Amino acid sequence: MSARSLLASLLLFASVACAPEGAPDPQLPPLVAASEVADANLALVTGAREVVPVEADDPSKGAVEPLVVIVEYSDFQCPHCGRFASALDELVVAYPDDVRIVFKQFPLPMHPDAEIGARAALAARAQGKFWAMHDRLFANRSSMSRDEVVGHAKALGLDLPAFEAALDDGSTGARVAADKRAGAVIGVRGTPSFFVNGLPYSGALPPDELGAVVEQERALGRRLVEAGSPRAHVPGVIMRAAGKASAAASPPSSP
Q1: 7, 157, 179, 233 — which has fewest CB within 10 A?
Q2: Pairwise CA distance, residues 75 & 20, whole Å
Q3: What region, left, alpha or beta, does residue 174 occupy, with left being phi > 0 and alpha being psi -120 to 50 degrees?
Q4: Each residue of 34-64: b (16+ CB within 10 Å) or e?
C-alpha cells in the first residue's frame, strides 16, 4: 500500500481514535540526546539535516521510542497550521509506534492574537491539557482574546486562577520567545515549518508527499536498529550525525 493510500484509509479512523476533548496530555519519556549516543552508524544518516533543539518539557505526542521525530513550528492563527495539525494527527494514528510529534511556538506578527494563543497553550500545559487547548485554539482561530482563551480553559475544566496566573507569568512569554529564537536559528521564517528527523520543510506538504517522507525516515530508523543502534537512541544518532555534518561543512573561524 502506498503512503498516500495508507493515510487516506486511516482518515476516518483518525477522526474517532484521537483523544477526546479534555483528555490529559500523554506522558512520554524525553528523547535520548545526541550527546548520549555513540558514533557508530552515523554514516547511515545522509541528507542535509538541521540540529533541531528538543526540550524534555516540549509538548509532544506519539511513539514512546520513535524512529521518526517531527518537530513543528506553528502559529495558532495560521489556517495552514490548523490543517497541517490534522495531518500530523493522522500520522500519529497511522504510525503509533514510530512517529512522535513535538510542538514549538512560532506566533507571527501578522496574527495579532497568536501570541496570547501560544501563551494559553503553555498555560494549559502546566495543568496537563496542552493538546486539548491546542485543538480548541485551532478550531476557533479567528479570534483569541483573553476572555476567549479563559473561556476555553473553563470548558476544559482547568483551574482558572492557576491558568490566568500562568497566562500572565513572564516565564510563559519567555518560553514562547525562546521557541521563536531557536526556530529562527535553524531557518524558520514562516508557518507551518517542520523538521522530519532534522530534514527541513516549509509549508504543509500534501498527504502523499508527507507520507513518503515518513516512510523514508522509518526505513532509516530500521536500518540504524538493524546495524546495532538501540531503538531509543535512533533520534539521538540522527541528530549526532547532523551535528557532525554541520560542523564539517562550516568554515573554520578566524582567530
Answers
A1: 157
A2: 22
A3: alpha
A4: beebeeebbebbeeebbbbbbeeebbbbbbe
Least confident of 113-122, 141-150, 172-181, 192-201: 141-150
d(CA 255, CA 250): 15
CB of 136 closer than 8 Å to CB of 168: no
Set of cell numbers at residue 199: 530534514
Q: Is the peptide bond before 192 cis (omega within 30 degrees of 0)?
A: yes
Q: What is the mean pLDDT of residues 224-244?
A: 97
**Per-residue pLDDT tens over the stretch 123-164:** 999 999 999 999 999 999 888 999 999 999 999 999 999 999
According to the model, what pLDDT value does residue 187 have? 95
- Enter the C-alpha cell of residue 55: 526540550
Listed residue (73, 74, 65, 72) closest to 96, CA to CA = 65
Residue 166 neighbours by CB distance under 10 Å: 21
N- to C-terminal Cα separation, the chain: 56
